[in-house]
């Protein structure tokens, strides 16, 4: 057996080998050591190999999915080796023959299909990057849904595109693996190098034609050699990991970068579109706006949010669908009620295609089509916009497969086909006959037991069954002599004697056992055959079912966005090809949601970056904690929401199409690459200045703060001038360098704005209101006091600030600092024990629980009198 294990393991050196032995998957040698540590399970040993103990651990077959999920999340790949024959079949080849085993599947982060291993509301993308000379392409697939797309992609665009897709695994040629590993690591994708042959464009084209059973791919679009190579590598890898059982992949769709708003990785991270800075969905925009009720609708929402469109016709079609649902309250609620009953058709189809499906996957198709028919009927009586009308049409025409599944399946089928009992009575006469014999056999056994009890006069006689003897008659040992003596011994044949019972059989019982066992096995074989027929019928119309699944997701998303807009009082933005950007009473959706839960109100603000020609930049000043970063982010989010087709959190919005969104907000370092906070800031700023066009929307916060004051001011100043003169973009630029407010008088496209505060009795009150004009100062010392800095530090800071402000006009700041007396601020005195007084001594002797209300009032007057004395 170990020889077989080592032979299989040699073929998969980079994966943990799950070696099937009966009801367990066993792991040996180094695999066992690694798996035991990762899974926190016992590590044992089994025999010796080359004189050393063989480490071993195992997991139950029926619970393996949970262990697989843990291993995949920890970066492992797993090869599943199943028994390809029964032990009985192996023995026919020789008494000591080892049961034949082979790897039936390679489980990797990008090739998961089981519901228990996946997040139902997120895609699980496998990506492939191909590079042929100066031509590059990125392809990606979600084999759990059949999604397959490709686009031209240079190395410069690879990082931003991976940030948009967030693939779990990326395939590259091993000749490029090391140079691309940092990009994959940054995006959290497992990198899988493949031989260059997997990326051969000619072989790839043949591979794809074979997959789709076509002579040419021209019917799917025009693809470059690099795109063929990326798609072909995906198919080759899937063929290898799925052992020839390719998933149901939709025809490849060619994406164009020009059709999408370009958002780089840093901007996605800063804006927290789909994932918060802390990790996970909590606090991200996606979590706040997701009101979808189906898994497919949730995945579509994430795709739209991650990839806002830059095509006006596409955006307006989506927005019209949302507006239609917004105005149809009764219709929308009826649709959402029906959509809640829609299962995940895409993922059920994928498992059916991979032959990993069970009866419940067929039931998911049936239930999904049943709800689709109801939804189509509801929409048939409404005057729907084009996008909803197309979706409604895709929901019809499935009567034949629906009728077949409805007639064939029981209402609640079991999980596994081998359990049987999923085919409805009356669907197949042969199955009904076999079931009748099987089920009536039980009653026949009961009748036989009563007859035998009467015949022998032993009322305690029982007919039982086990896997060794089959059916047998059992009596207690006290009745054994009667059964073994004439005339009963002629009919009752002795089988076995145990400590307390004696077991017998009869010719009639043996014959009935054969009939019953054959009937049960025959019924199960018929059900398996019918399952294969149903599976084939579903796959025959898989393309139409996939269109229905997409239509249901489209309807769900339109209803969800309409429901969101109605509940949050959002407005429908006006979009056109102008360079307008006018938002009235805009709000940050995530911050507003958090404040609403806390019972507080969000302060809305206007923003106007409209410009017929040239730049339109607001230079935003004001103290920390006043809301500058929130204001910057909310306007970027409003633009993204508008161009994904949603309504936006504002009273009114007019947005000329945005081609790119750039954000440089917050402080972070990248120690792994040796980058300080300031270096990261400069790299991100450089990316903006080098790429932003006149249709971009840029938000910049505190450029230059990570270095010396004059260096930072000069960098911020030059950056703003470059945005104005060269990029000519729409931008919000927040800064604490008040000297920069002078640029509003020198650059025609720059306007000052500030976040207002109010001082009251030495305290600073944040009003969170943005108005035109410049801030008079930064209020940094006041904010530091709110943060809890010691009084001595605050006092000293005020002295230094006053001296610097007095010396601004003519004295060098260094000279001002040199003139300050060292340690002049009074030290905070050490806390002293409070002095006693008649009042405190009186209080020390009182037990409040023993006072009546009258006594408590008298005591209060007494204490007041003592405190005066």
TrEMBL record:
Keywords: ATP-binding, DNA damage, DNA repair, DNA-binding, Nucleotide-binding. InterPro entries: DNA_mismatch_repair_MutS, DNA_mismatch_repair_MutS-lik_N, DNA_mismatch_repair_MutS/MSH, DNA_mismatch_repair_MutS_C, DNA_mismatch_repair_MutS_clamp, DNA_mismatch_repair_MutS_core, DNA_mismatch_repair_MutS_N, DNA_mismatch_repair_MutS_sf. It comes from the Bacteria. Residues 696-712 form the DNA mismatch repair proteins mutS family domain. HAMAP family: MutS. The lineage of its organism: Bacteria, Pseudomonadati, Pseudomonadota, Alphaproteobacteria, Rhodobacterales. This is DNA mismatch repair protein MutS. Residues 827-840 have a biased composition (Low complexity). Belongs to the DNA mismatch repair MutS family.
């Amino acid at each position: 057996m170990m020889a077989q294990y080592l032979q299989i393991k040699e073929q998969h050196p980079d994966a943990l080998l799950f070696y099937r032995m009966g009801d367990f998957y066993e792991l040996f040698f180094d695999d066992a050591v690694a798996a035991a540590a990762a899974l926190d399970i016992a590590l044992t040993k089994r025999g010796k190999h080359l004189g050393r103990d063989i480490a071993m651990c195992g997991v139950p077959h029926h619970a393996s999915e949970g262990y697989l999920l843990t291993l995949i999340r920890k970066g492992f790949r797993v090869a599943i080796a199943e028994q390809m024959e029964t032990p009985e079949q192996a023995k026919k080849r020789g008494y000591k023959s080892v049961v034949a085993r082979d790897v039936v599947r390679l489980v990797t982060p990008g090739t998961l299909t089981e519901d228990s291993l996946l997040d139902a509301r997120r895609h699980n993308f496998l990506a492939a990057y191909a590079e042929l000379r100066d031509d590059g392409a990125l392809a990606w697939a979600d084999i759990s849904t059949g999604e397959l797309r490709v686009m031209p992609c240079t190395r410069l665009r690879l990082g931003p595109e991976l940030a948009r897709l967030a693939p779990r695994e990326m395939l590259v040629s091993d000749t490029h693996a090391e140079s691309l590993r940092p990009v994959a690591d940054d995006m959290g994708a497992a990198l899988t190098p493949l031989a260059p042959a997997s990326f051969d464009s000619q072989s790839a084209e043949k591979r794809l034609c074979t997959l789709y059973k076509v002579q040419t791919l021209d019917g799917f679009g025009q693809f470059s050699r690099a795109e063929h190579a990326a798609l072909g590598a995906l198919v080759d890898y899937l063929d290898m990991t799925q052992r020839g059982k390719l998933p149901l992949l939709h025809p490849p769709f060619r994406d164009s970068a020009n059709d999408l708003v370009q958002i780089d990785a840093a901007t996605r991270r800063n804006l927290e579109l789909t994932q918060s800075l802390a990790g996970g969905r909590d606090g991200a925009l996606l979590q706040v706006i997701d009101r979808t009720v189906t898994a497919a609708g949730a995945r579509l929402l994430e795709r739209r949010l991650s990839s806002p469109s830059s095509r006006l016709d596409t955006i307006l079609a989506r927005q019209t669908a949302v507006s239609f649902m917004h105005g149809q309250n009764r219709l929308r609620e009826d649709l959402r009620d029906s959509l809640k009953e829609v299962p995940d058709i895409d993922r059920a189809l994928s498992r059916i295609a991979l032959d990993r499906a069970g009866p419940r996957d067929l039931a998911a198709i049936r239930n999904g089509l049943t709800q689709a028919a109801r939804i189509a009927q509801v929409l048939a009586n409404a005057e729907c916009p084009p996008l909803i009308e197309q979706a409604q049409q895709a929901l019809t025409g499935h009567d034949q497969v629906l009728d077949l599944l409805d007639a064939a399946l029981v209402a609640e089928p079991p999980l596994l086909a081998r359990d049987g009992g999923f085919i409805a009575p009356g669907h197949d006469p042969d199955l009904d006959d076999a079931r009748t014999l099987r089920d009536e056999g039980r009653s026949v056994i009961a009748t036989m037991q009563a007859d035998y009890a009467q015949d022998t006069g032993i009322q305690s006689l029982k007919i039982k069954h086990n896997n060794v003897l089959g059916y047998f008659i059992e009596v207690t040992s006290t009745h054994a002599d009667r059964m073994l003596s004439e005339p009963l011994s002629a009919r009752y044949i002795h089988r076995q004697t145990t400590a307390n019972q004696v077991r017998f059989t009869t010719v009639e019982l043996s014959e009935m056992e054969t009939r019953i066992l054959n009937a049960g096995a025959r019924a199960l074989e018929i059900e398996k055959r019918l399952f294969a027929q149903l599976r084939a019928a579903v796959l025959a119309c898989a393309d139409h079912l996939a269109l229905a699944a997409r239509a249901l997701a489209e309807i769900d998303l339109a209803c969800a966005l309409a429901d969101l807009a109605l509940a949050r009082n959002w407005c429908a933005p006006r979009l056109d090809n102008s360079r307008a950007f006018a938002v009235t009473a805009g709000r940050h959706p995530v911050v507003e949601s958090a404040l609403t839960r806390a019972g507080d109100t969000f302060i809305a603000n206007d923003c106007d970056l409209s410009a017929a020609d040239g730049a339109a930049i607001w230079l935003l000043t004001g103290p920390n904690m006043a809301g500058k970063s929130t204001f910057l982010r909310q306007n970027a989010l409003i633009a993204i929401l508008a161009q994904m087709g949603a309504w936006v959190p504002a009273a009114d919005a007019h947005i000329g199409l945005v081609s790119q969104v750039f954000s440089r907000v917050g402080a972070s370092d990248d120690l792994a690459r040796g980058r300080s906070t300031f270096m990261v800031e400069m790299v991100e700023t450089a990316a903006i200045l080098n790429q932003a066009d006149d249709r971009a929307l840029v938000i910049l916060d505190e450029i230059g703060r990570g270095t010396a004051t004059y260096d930072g001011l000069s960098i911020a100043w030059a950056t703003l001038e470059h945005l104005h003169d060269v990029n000519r973009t729409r931008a919000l630029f927040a800064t604490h360098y008040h000297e920069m407010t002078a640029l509003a008088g020198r650059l025609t496209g720059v306007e000052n704005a500030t976040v207002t505060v109010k001082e009251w009795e030495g305290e600073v009150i944040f009003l969170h209101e943005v108005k035109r004009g410049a801030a008079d100062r930064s209020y940094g010392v006041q904010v530091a006091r709110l943060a809890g800095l010691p009084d001595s530090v605050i006092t000293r800071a005020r002295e230094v600030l006053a001296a610097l402000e007095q010396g601004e006009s003519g004295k060098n700041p260094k000279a001002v600092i040199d003139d300050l007396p060292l340690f002049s601020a009074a030290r905070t005195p050490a806390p002293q024990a409070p002095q006693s007084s008649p009042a405190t001594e009186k209080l020390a002797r009182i037990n409040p629980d023993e006072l009546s209300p009258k006594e408590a009032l008298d005591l209060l007057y007494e204490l007041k009198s003592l405190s005066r004395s």
